[in-house]
Amino acid sequence: MSDPPVLLVLDLAGTFAFALNGALTAVRTAHLDIVGVITLGMITAVGGGIIRDVLLGALPPATFVDWRYLAVAAGGGLIAFLFSRGLDRFTRLIDLLDAAGLSLFAVTGAGKALELGVGPAQAIILGAVTGVGGGTVRDVLIQRVPSVLSSGLYAIPALVGAALVVAAESGGISTLLGVPVALGAAVVCFLIRMVGLHFEIDAPKPPGIEHEGSGASGNDGG
Amino acid sequence: MSDPPVLLVLDLAGTFAFALNGALTAVRTAHLDIVGVITLGMITAVGGGIIRDVLLGALPPATFVDWRYLAVAAGGGLIAFLFSRGLDRFTRLIDLLDAAGLSLFAVTGAGKALELGVGPAQAIILGAVTGVGGGTVRDVLIQRVPSVLSSGLYAIPALVGAALVVAAESGGISTLLGVPVALGAAVVCFLIRMVGLHFEIDAPKPPGIEHEGSGASGNDGG
Amino acid sequence: MSDPPVLLVLDLAGTFAFALNGALTAVRTAHLDIVGVITLGMITAVGGGIIRDVLLGALPPATFVDWRYLAVAAGGGLIAFLFSRGLDRFTRLIDLLDAAGLSLFAVTGAGKALELGVGPAQAIILGAVTGVGGGTVRDVLIQRVPSVLSSGLYAIPALVGAALVVAAESGGISTLLGVPVALGAAVVCFLIRMVGLHFEIDAPKPPGIEHEGSGASGNDGG
Predict the structure, then answer these.
(1) Which residues of C162-173 are buried (b: 16+ CB within 10 A; e: fewer)?
(2) What are the pLDDT digits (tens) for A110-153?
(3) How many of the other CB atoms lie within 10 Å of CB of A88?
(4) Which of A40, A82, A143 is facing C207, going by the closest CB pair?
(5) How far apart are the first and last CA of chain C?
(6) Confidence of residue A177 (pLDDT cuts 50, 70, 90)
(7) Mutation site, A20, A24, A28, A31, interface C, largest C CB count within 10 A
(8) Is C35 on the interface with A (CB under 8 A)?
(9) What is residue B192's predicted lDDT score, i.e. its pLDDT?
(10) Counting one residue from A and one from B, how many pairs have CB atoms under 8 Å apart?
(11) What is the pLDDT of residues C78-136, one digit of tens each?
């Protein structure tokens, strides 16, 4: 599913957006040096795919072996390191790219999981893990409760996008229309994410727990 | 070793207890949404087995591939999300189930490690990792120093239970009496854990470091 | 590359130094019991090699399967637990051993990665990961932002040492002079690390971010 050039280009664009966004979050949150900023950008970008491949037993992980992913991720981290102040003006663009990355990672992640023969529930989980795993590892390293667990609509669009891929596959649609189905699922994920960002929608909280006025936009990477 | 139905049922019961307990700990400690609570319940329940299988190279991990574990874990997390307040009355029952889960995971984890041919020291470590790994990952995600590292008797009963399995195996007892030996080792682990909980026993602290009056019961999941 | 006895002895010495240093850092930073201190010492010592082997798909990980590494690591952790106060006098010696461990791990890690056929960029990254991975996991578990991301020259000497191994390999020098090349690269890594420690050099920070007077020596394990 990741073979067609159009998906590869989109996947690399998502990798770049994740690295940029992840490194910017790291710069703003913790006092890191150049090694730390670039490392966290790269982890945000390729961490989700690595966790997916570890759980699939598809080692060494594809995004680690393919130098293009590493180079694009390192480039995004370096740009964030050099221009962290100037990039504040592009918050909206970076949010857009990040939502695109989330969507593509969820869809290609679920597709790869299906190819390797796991069940539908596992494929949906692995799609979401591909999308949110890198940002989660980054948040752990800079001592934040991962925002994906606490605020905003981030995991849910990824789960929906991955579920659409799995549904299309089990309905036999994907073999005929692989790339269009993948792009359609990614667009749905992207739209849910952008609507959630715009209206600052949060996923439900446990009943009876008072809600903090977090209002966090959650726009901080994979 | 995990084939006999009685062990499978017990393993699933432990999975449920870990998910319930792990998700409740997450609800009480951090401000999470429904995705966060269920995710942390599932990680608590199947995380230890996943780390064990990664270290054994037995990929994809068994508890991840088997939908029954995922379903039971997700169910435990969902129940904790919905009824987190009401479940406060059942603290003692949940402690019991959690100790049972710890015991079963340590014993089946050590057994699986032996089956896959690692040495006795590694099998004991992997038994304990199966029991405590999931709760450790959960604690890292919600920004707590893992309680297994700092208070209560939690890792030690798991190590003892795993060591009994390894000793029985090297003594040739397990081939004759697989399930009884496993259950016996689990009962020993369970009793040490419950005695430690009841009397609030802590493992030794480094000499010369003043001891905090922590007195934490440590009853917070795998 | 890790076969010759001289490299094995040095590797085990590095393992011991990492365990000692990692466990001491754990004792000083968090309130842990004996299980926690020894566990964190062992994770500091063998964690980097385990992450490397997971990323290489070389499972079960070599430092986990080989009981000598586990025994040396557990011994270092136990000594740190028992003598944490007395060891304060040996800070300089422990720093030396830790720098030696970093150097050897970076070099042997890059060598193993090359043997298993990954590309040069990946081999350099895996060399550095072998050196700094264990300390990073320890820092996450005791709730510190990993010092390797924020202060001191720690990752950079490891990257340089690993890069020298990769350069020698691609120049065809290693096949003739395996051990001398490895030792030479380790010595370069060691010297950069010691110079950085002595002059308290930090890696560059992002431009425009005010610099904290951290001045941390960063001498806290792998």
Answers:
(1) bbbbbebbeeee
(2) 989 998 989 999 999 999 999 999 999 999 998 888 888 877 78
(3) 11
(4) A82
(5) 21
(6) low
(7) A31
(8) no
(9) 92
(10) 83
(11) 998 998 877 777 778 778 878 888 998 999 899 899 989 899 999 999 999 999 999 99
Cβ of residue B148 closer than 8 Å to a chain C Cβ: yes
Residue A183 lies in a domain: yes
- A75 is in which domain, residue-wise? 5-199
Pairs from B180-186 (Cβ < 8 Å, separation ≥ 24): B182/B1, B182/B7, B182/B107, B182/B108, B182/B111, B183/B107, B185/B103, B185/B106, B185/B107, B185/B161, B186/B10, B186/B100, B186/B103, B186/B104, B186/B106, B186/B107, B186/B161
Q: Are C22 and C138 in contact (CB under 8 A)?
A: yes
The reply to whether B102 touches chain C by the CB within 8 Å rule is no
Q: Which residue has the higher pLDDT, B34 or C200?
A: B34
For the entire predicted model, the pTM comes to 0.88
Number of domains in chain A: 1
In a domain, A204, yes or no: no
C86 touches chain B (CB under 8 A): no
In a domain, A219, yes or no: no
Instruction: Decide if A204 and B33 are in contact by the 8 Å CB cutoff.
Output: yes
Contact B160, B192 (CB under 8 A): yes
Compute the half-sphere exposure of residue C177: CA atoms within 13 Å on the CB side of its CA: 12
Evaluate whether A146 touches A135 at the Cβ level (below 8 Å): yes
d(CA C24, CA C22): 5
Q: What confidence tens digit (pLDDT) does each residue in A72-95 have?
A: 999 999 998 998 877 777 778 778
Cβ of B67 within 8 Å of Cβ of A143? The answer is no
Burial of C215 (0-12, 13-18, 19+ CB in 10 A): exposed
Rounded to an integer, the average pLDDT of B20-29 is 86
Give the residue-averaged pLDDT of A195-222. 61
Q: What is the mean pLDDT of residues C131-159?
A: 88
Name the average pLDDT for chain B: 83
CA A43 – CA C39 distance, rounded (Å): 25
* B141 Cα to chain C: minimum distance (Å): 10
- Is residue B206 included in any domain, yes or no? no
- Asked if the model's pLDDT at residue A2 lies above 70, the reply is no
Token duo for residue A116 = 């390797």
Quick check: C63 contacting A, CB < 8 Å? no
Both tokens assigned to C6: 């001289």
